[in-house]
Amino acid sequence: MNHGKKQNKKWMKRLAAMMLAGGAVFSMSPDAQAADIRILPVDTAKFWSGSHFDFDVEVADAKNLGDVSIQVNGQDAEKFFGKPLERKDLGNGVTAFRVDDVTFPKTGDYKISVTANDATGMSTRTAGYTVVHEVAPKKAKNVILFIGDGMSLQAREIARIMSKGMTNGKYNDLLAMEKLPHNCLITTSGYDSLTTDSANSASAYATGHKSVVNALGVYADSTKDPFDDPKVENLSEILKRTRGMSIGVITQAESTDATPAAMIGHTRRRANQDFLAKSYLEQYHRPDVIMGGGLQRYIPQSEAGSKRKDNFNVVDAFKNLGYTYATNSTEMMAAPDDKPFLGLYYPSTMNVWLDREMFRDPKVLKGHMDQPNLINMTKKSLDILSKNKNGFFAMIEGASIDKQLHAMDWQRAGYDTIEFDKAIEYAVDWNKKRGDDTLIIVVADHAHGASITGTYHERDGKKGTEAVRTYANSIFPTFEDKNGDGFPDNPDPDVTIAVQFANHPAYYENYHLMKTPTVPTVAVTKDAAEAAKASDKAEFHLGTVGKTMANPKRIHEGDPVQFVPANIPDGATDEGHAADDVPLNAGGPGSEYFNGVQDNTEVYFGILRALGIDGNKNVKTFTKDIDK
User: Is the pTM of this model over 0.85?
Assistant: First the structure.
């Protein structure tokens, strides 16, 4: 080796340290590219004692891979887990060493040490895990996890202004969620990126583990197969396995959308919704109550409107298991409380409060005039789930807060936040009547970049940007609620809120409510590009064919329309998520766990702590009996 004494000494010191880790050592050059080692679950992962997971080590870029040593706290991994690790060439330059369905039965710190030998020498990698088990001073029988999708602090404030109003700068009241006694801030990043999506973030709540964008209940391995990634046990599975609790997923989105699916399913790609619908039938995590939209994922390909890729009828399969099936509010409210329940109220995502309850345009509702509201969905689901003497876990999602903020429609998002809060109010009162045996958690999965600049009005004839009022000019909004139901009578009063966005595509801002839902951008087609060139609307032609442009349907004659250039890359179809922390409120047994600033994975541990779950119990053994 001709690299000087200092370099040689440093390299030999590294080599000696590797030898202490165990395993044979091949001759090597300090300039050689060592093999890359990846350990899943990732470093810093936290586990509930007795929870189940798949363990995987991947070795990439090896030259004639030889011995690989995998140890847990200095003990051979196969001996520690009591199972052999399968060695498999993945065909993409990666060799995997994997064992499925293992546990850490005892609390404490665990160190994973991996050494891999190949023609270039030896590579090492370590990961540190923490395994915990706690029991709250007063245990909860049930848990209700309310997730306001995308409900950042500003979304709450919009709803509070609209619903409660202000007197001399003081709010006349707070939202029901804000009256819960314990609160904290939740950080939301995944292990792959600063800004998360709903799949990754909801999965953290459901499993206690970080994941990657688009993933549900798995660590992402290096294969292309979205169904073979190492799994981690989620709340539905551990609560059914250890205590036989009932599970409910209630949402206004498709019931196989990211947030509800994170409570149940396992896949690298959240878009596999037909797979997820069928996987809900698997006994080991089968929900006892499913409510939401997404009928198109449950009906066979041969039926009109289906988005399945096969002719499996998921609805009939649930009926054959004894589930009551409902397609509208009337059927839902009439359903018996002593049977499991499947409610699918719309082909895709359900309509929002403004369109469903106020405007009621048949063209917008597409004939679905009897969709239930989230308050009644909450009521019915609790009536059914509470019949289980072992308790229940329910995830109730205000799904379209997020979807309307993506569409830069803060008014519709605001009304849906109020609806979400009314469902929380019902659950809080329900819990009080039961003697406070239920932990209630309210949180968002991630934030949006919406901000309240001030107010907007045209009383003095000003329009557009000139009518955005800031500081002393931001007189109070004039929302009214004459019947006291918490929902403003007029969503577009003469003095309204000025809401602006930090991360958006090119769009047209008209500062007023759009009576018909209208997306901010559309695809740039060849015809649209040619039409834009021939018009005096040069801003239409902002992107290339295949990209996006501001949607001209947002321009209405007489409105103070302003073109707003994109501040995120061309091609984005809507406003994006933000990496901001989100507030959490909690009440009931175990809610004292939540304080200060906590990672999103801590929601899972707070839930198991409140219930006093023993992860090493197996009161029910289920088989994964549904094919993909």
Answer: yes
